Structure formats: structure tokens, C-alpha cells
């Protein structure tokens, strides 16, 4: 893949923050100028992860694109302001005592990426921009529409979204409670990356992950510890905990989603194994008169389906993109010319 790095500015929290982003294009594509005809995907990640977790699915999507017809021309992935490379860019702000986590910061980054890097380059009818998110990243992505006066995206795809109605707030599964309790006390330092890799290989949940994702976590999720030596997490445990701290945030995003779903198709993907969230809690999102474009469950994977089954996630994503093409015909026609 051809990989380019970018920085996105946001201000919704009242303090200037930056997001690190990467743009991925298939080999042979130009790294400059307008994107080729096809889908442009924007990815957000879950809490505790980082933008590179999407690289394995992105590679597979590019491979699928070679078959003709449906095409992914480029993909973007954004680090949350408190995660990954963004955490380093924002260290002075996010480590201040008065800093407060806001899901709106990440949402604004999605809209600003579109306006700053895509708006002047995409061609109507030749490019469709689709916003995708996993877990808390999906909840934030659903708020991106608040930062634009008309729909920017052709569709949304949410993987295990942490969004539910008020009656489900605080109705937590035992695994969720266990994970939440353990975040602040988790190990966050290793003498070498090799030791970190061995640690993750031998402990849940990382031991359940696809080995490629685990290697990406070690490669991109750690940074040199300038105080203790060795390596530490780019995302400090306190920032990983922040989305867990107020379950009401999962409820607060629902009014915006209720408006969006009436004008833009929203697709849902879940893992078939209910671990972090019960099936009842997931299904509560399907009620309330909301009509989702599709709901898919991937067998033998849990809430961290992106980490556990990245190839299967990519296959489902590509199927959704093909469905979008059949509904509009744009790219199928282009492929026949």
C-alpha cells in the first residue's frame, strides 16, 4: 500500500487538538491529485486502539477491488485525539488537569477530514465517501453529521457500536465490568517490544486476536518511555478508560443517529459471540422504529471482532460496498466502459 500521513485540526472541545491520520492507496495509485473512481473509506477505532488496527481489513479490501466492479480507491484512518500518534501531538493539552474527554472531538475530526482533504478532490458520481467506526469510535462517528449542514457521507458502517437507548444504560455484562475495573491497573510498561509481544501473546484479550493485528498493536501502539526506559502505551490507561466512565454518552448520541438514519443508510456489524455486551443490549438499538440497511453477525468473534477476525470484517464490508454500488450503479457502469 501507499501510505501518506496527515494532521487534522479540531476545536469542538474549546481547546485546539490535533488528529494524526493516514491515507492508504493501493500499489500503482498516484499519491497526488484526485482519487481514482471508487469508494473512499474513513475509519475510526475503538478505545484503547489506534488507526493502524484497520490496516489488515484495508489490505483485504484493496485485494477484493482487483476483481473488478466495486472498487475501493483509498482509505483513511484517524487516531482519536487521546490515542496513538494523536496523543503525542496533544500531550500538553490532554495531560492537563482540566482536560475532559469528549466524543465530539473525534466526530469533528471525521467531518474536518472530509472538508479539508476530500471536498475539493472527489468527483460526484465517481466517488462515494463512507464513514466506518468500531465500538466507541462508531459512536463518535455517528455524531460527525452534527458538524455539517448536509450529509457528507453516502453511508455509515458501524462495527459493534456502543450506542443504546436510555433503558440499557448501566445494564452491563460481567465481562464489561471486569474490563472496566482492570484498565487503570493494567500493565503499561515493557523493557523491550519483544517482551511486550510475548506478554500480549499469552494473555486475553490479546491472545484471541489475529496475529497480524497483535503485531500492529506492538509496532504502533507503543512508544519509547523517556522516564523509565523501555516501552509504554501511546494511549495512557486513563484515556482508555474515559469512554467507559460515563455510560450516558452511549445514550446521548442516539438522537443524532435517529435523524441520520432517515436520510443515509446505516449498516451494522456485530461479532456473533456476546462478551462485552449482551445480545439484548445490542438488539435494543434495532428497536425504536430505526430501520438499518443491514445487520450482520460474524460467527466466533466478540466485541473486538476487528482484532479477532479482520479478514471476515473486510469481507462483510466489501459485500456492503457492492450493495451500495448495485443501488446506484455508478461504479459498475464505470467498470464496463
From TrEMBL:
N-terminal signal peptide: none
Residue span, AB hydrolase-1 domain: 41-316
MF (Gene Ontology): hydrolase activity
UniProt KW Protease keyword: no
InterPro entries in the record: AB_hydrolase_1, AB_hydrolase_fold
Keywords attached to this entry: Hydrolase
Pfam family, one: Abhydrolase_6
Gene3D superfamilies on file: alpha/beta hydrolase
Domain of life: Eukaryota
Listed name of the protein: Alpha/beta-hydrolase
Amino acid at each position: 500500500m501507499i501510505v501518506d500521513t496527515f494532521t487534522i485540526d479540531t476545536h469542538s472541545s474549546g481547546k485546539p487538538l490535533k488528529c494524526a491520520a493516514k491515507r492508504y492507496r493501493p500499489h500503482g495509485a498516484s499519491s497526488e491529485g484526485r482519487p481514482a473512481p471508487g469508494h473512499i473509506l474513513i475509519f475510526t477505532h475503538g478505545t484503547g486502539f489506534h488507526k493502524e488496527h484497520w490496516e489488515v481489513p484495508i489490505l483485504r479490501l484493496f485485494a477484493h477491488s482487483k476483481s473488478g466492479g466495486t472498487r475501493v480507491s483509498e482509505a483513511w484512518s484517524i487516531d482519536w485525539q487521546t490515542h496513538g500518534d494523536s496523543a503525542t501531538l496533544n500531550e500538553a493539552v490532554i495531560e492537563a488537569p482540566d482536560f475532559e474527554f469528549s466524543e465530539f472531538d473525534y466526530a469533528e475530526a471525521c467531518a474536518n477530514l472530509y472538508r479539508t482533504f476530500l471536498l475539493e478532490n472527489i468527483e460526484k458520481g465517481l466517488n462515494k465517501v463512507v464513514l466506518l467506526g468500531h465500538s466507541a469510535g462508531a459512536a463518535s462517528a455517528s455524531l460527525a453529521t452534527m458538524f455539517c449542514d448536509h450529509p457528507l457521507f453516502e453511508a455509515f458502517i458501524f462495527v459493534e457500536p456502543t450506542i443504546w437507548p436510555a433503558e440499557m444504560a448501566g445494564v452491563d455484562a460481567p465481562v464489561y465490568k471486569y474490563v472496566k475495573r482492570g484498565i487503570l491497573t493494567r500493565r503499561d510498561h515493557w523493557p523491550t517490544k519483544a517482551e511486550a509481544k510475548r506478554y500480549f501473546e499469552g494473555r486475553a484479550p490479546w491472545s484471541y486476536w489475529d496475529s497480524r493485528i497483535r503485531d500492529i498493536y506492538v509496532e504502533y501502539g507503543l512508544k519509547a518511555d523517556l522516564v523509565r526506559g523501555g516501552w509504554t502505551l501511546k494511549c495512557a490507561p486513563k484515556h482508555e478508560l474515559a469512554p467507559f466512565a460515563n455510560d450516558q454518552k452511549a445514550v446521548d448520541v442516539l438522537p443524532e443517529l435517529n435523524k441520520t438514519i432517515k436520510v443515509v443508510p446505516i449498516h451494522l456489524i456485530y461479532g456473533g459471540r456476546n462478551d462485552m455486551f449482551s445480545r439484548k443490549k445490542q438488539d435494543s438499538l434495532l428497536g425504536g422504529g430505526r430501520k438499518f440497511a443491514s445487520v450482520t453477525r460474524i460467527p466466533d468473534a466478540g466485541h473486538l471482532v476487528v482484532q479477532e477476525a479482520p479478514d471476515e470484517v473486510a469481507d462483510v464490508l466489501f459485500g456492503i460496498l457492492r450493495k451500495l454500488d448495485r443501488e446506484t450503479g455508478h461504479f459498475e457502469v464505470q467498470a464496463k466502459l
